[in-house]
Amino acid sequence: MGVKMPIIPRKRLARLVNCRPFTLVLAPVLLAACAVGYQAHGSLSDIPGELRGKGYPGGTGGGRFALADREGRLSCDGEAFPPAAAVTPGMCAGESGAGMVRCSDGRTIPIRWQAITCRSWQGSGEDARGNRLEFRMERR
To answer: What is the pTM for the complete model shown?
Structure first.
């Protein structure tokens, strides 16, 4: 009692085989597009150079972000709390709020942020010694 295997006509088999290269090329491209995400960058007045990292928007506004210098000496994790109220219902631009950044050297920086669009926001704050952090997060 063997299992009968379906017979695939030659033309149909040729079409199936010819689609494979297209699928092999398209799948990684689609996956890479999803992985781009939000980019974060900023500066801290007492650290030379730019800080770079990733952003993770929150579902109700605000979000989280991580920044680090190129040499890996300093890393900071920030949280932008959701806005208290929307400026215009259904619109993101102009929303603002507070947050907190904690860095690997022990400093904490209270921040204020403002939405530029629904896909980007910026903010700033100062640590206890008066060093200024400025940052921006946007979808690339």
So the answer is: 0.71
